[in-house]
Automatic annotation (TrEMBL):
Identification of the protein by name: Putative MFS family arabinose efflux permease
InterPro entries (UniProt xref): MFS, MFS_dom, MFS_trans_sf, Proton-linked_MCT
One GO CC term, this protein: plasma membrane
GO MF terms held by the record: transmembrane transporter activity
Amino acid sequence: MILRRPHPAWYVAAVAFVALVGAAGFRATPSVLLRPLHEEFGWSLGTISAAVSVNLLLYGLTAPFAAALMEKFGLRRVVAAALVLVSAGSGLTVFMTHSWQLVLCWGVLVGLGTGSMALAFVAVVANRWFVARRGLVVGVLTAGGAAGQLVFLPLLARLTGEYGWRVAALTVAAAALSVVPLVWWRLRDRPADLGVTAYGAGPDDLVPAPPAAPGGAARAALRALGQAARTRPFWLLAGGFAICGATTNGLVGTHFIPAAHDHGMTETTAAGLLALVGLFDIAGTIASGWLTDRVDSRWLLGGYYALRGLSLLVLPSLFAATAHPSMVVFILFYGLDWVATVPPTVALCREYFGASGAVVFGWVFASHQIGAALAATAAGLVRDRLGDYDAAWYGAGALALAASLLSLMLLAGRRRGNVGPAGPGIGVAFPAAPAAPAAIT
């Protein structure tokens, strides 16, 4: 019996998954440390939430520029540098004494680092290395963030409870730094670097050469935004994804633990519930990737957002001092839907914007983080002013229902015949110039 070696694309995907898990450690940290920082320094939840908002905002705004930097400098260099930034930002928090230092470490350093390997990184890996199974690969890599949350949340909650928040912060710093050697050893930029074609590529599949970027990566990213902003699909996708960020990272990811604590639940128990969100998110996102290869992504997004909105409207009545069955059902359901929106959104960016799809998705993802940043700060202010989070949950539920409507509005363009099969490197919204045929690499 002859054993075939796996295609190199799977090794690249595996390393990308580990890197995303390493960076995800810090993504789990803010919700665990909100209360300890409030108690030690006396900073209001609004102030601490503002630092989280800076992190979320830079996490999103860095993504499109990082996608362009990956075109210019390569995946390996950008991802390795990003992990070092995450490690430095998390490690330096142990020396802070003022709230502006929290903004600098949590917000700026970690925001830039995690943003450089956000979901735009997932889109770049999937688009470069895979022709077949793209939706599944996007689902699996996106689940890397959820896996990081699953691995780190209970550990960080326990370390914080037994040894203090500084030990938890240093643990995240060490985890991010430990992934750098693996990234440098195994991650490669393109299939051609190893003398192979993308996984599933046939003899007739054309892989467009990366577009020339006069003026550097920043100009390439801004040019893609300028083109995309003139199209209706971009604004519908960006609007829905902004609400996606508000209802996940911004609200539930940041404020679920303190909200549960308000109702008498211990932080360790609440962190365990949030970790379960990560567990079920892995299954939900991979399943969503599988569905994206088979079902119209517009219908998928409409269904995901509608179900999320209805669940958020129910959440305020579920909080209690113990994790009763109804709350566990919510956690299971919300986990399955957490970032199930990513594979269909990546697929639609590729469909509408072709070879620029990864960079355009970076801008769509930036809207995700803008929504998350606004929600993180707004929910903290709601809690400070009203004494509970109920208004934040109800408002987020209504917004998610609106996102469902925005996604279904994309079907109107399909019925008018504006959507159809795109040629290699040719998006529906970005048609290829007749005089500049795609090159074969």
